Write the structure tokens for this entry.
Amino acid sequence: MEASTVYMIYGKDAAAMTRSLLDAYGIEERVKDKERIILKPNLVTPSRAEEGATTHTEIMSALIECLHDLGKTDIAIAEGSWVGASTEEAFRHCGCLEIARRLGVKLIDTKKDSFRTLEYDGMRMEVSEAILSCDYLINLPVLKGHCQTRMTAAMKNLKGCLSDRSKREFHRMGLMKPIAALNMLVRPDLTIVDSLSGDLDFEEGGNPVETDRMMAGDDPVAIDILGASLMGYAADDIPYIPIVLEYSGRNLSLEDIEVRELNRPEAGTARPSGAVGRLAGYTDPSDACSACLASLIHALKRLEEDGDISRLGGRKIAVGQGWRGRTMEIGSGTCCSGAAHGVRGCPPSASDILRMLEDL
Ligand code: SF4
């Protein structure tokens, strides 16, 4: 048994949230002897962060400004978009070109970098030399759905450190074991998760779930286990998590992760549309915090995937601060403690909500 700490913060001001996470993490002490610092965002395609696929620009800007304040000058943003997409186009479309000009940082397209061939458990892969040679690597993934791995967050984001040839090879090898192997070879020093509006179920975005949350920590596996729970999955549902635990001989579970919340969520103004709006049709929100409604949306998505949504029988699930002190049949979150069928938590995880719904 072991403990890992993940810092969590709620809100809409990504820059201020980033600074608070960095303060809580003690970034000054962590980077004091580090020269060459690389930020590795998720820029899988050239799409705006609001669409649910890519890392918000404000996080990168605030992080670089903080590092400048600490006297750090050798900073680069490094990424390689997925096969078939242009990283340069993603840099331009996602605002990194503007950041580079304004803040004087380098942009590294890892597709065009030189590579070092590494091997783990018989799997060979070409990893960007820039990534391997930096002094301090900061991973900036988006917590979102994924069509093959179900969820992507800290560990899978490192795939952007590979050559396109290795990315293709990963898929030929079944994706899960190679992702675990890559994480045995490359270990970011810090991971800051953009969980502001990650996509419901697809890495390319299109159905963002307004969540207004960010997280930070130095243990990518703990972050992914927690992220899975926030999306309604058990750790074992994301196949590369148990593989990396086995590789590293670790025995880490959700209960071992200490979550330090830096503030409390506030009532949001989400107006979900598309697939998220359809799932929101099963809810009855009243002054619901975005993170609370997002957990419920993810739980409903899992229930729907399991073919169990009919157990709601047309009933809607209450959620939000407007339900405090009232009674209802089904409710989600501590504000709905008057529910005949409910789950506590402020906000509850999607996994806990899913268990409650499965017991209906
Ligand atoms: S339980 Fe209430 S206060 Fe807590 S996150 Fe949910 S809606 Fe917000």
Summary: The longest strand covers residues 4-10. The chain has a mean pLDDT of 96. Residues 265, 288-289, 291-292, 320-321, 333-335, 346-347 surround iron/sulfur cluster (CB under 6 Å). The radius of gyration is 20 Å.
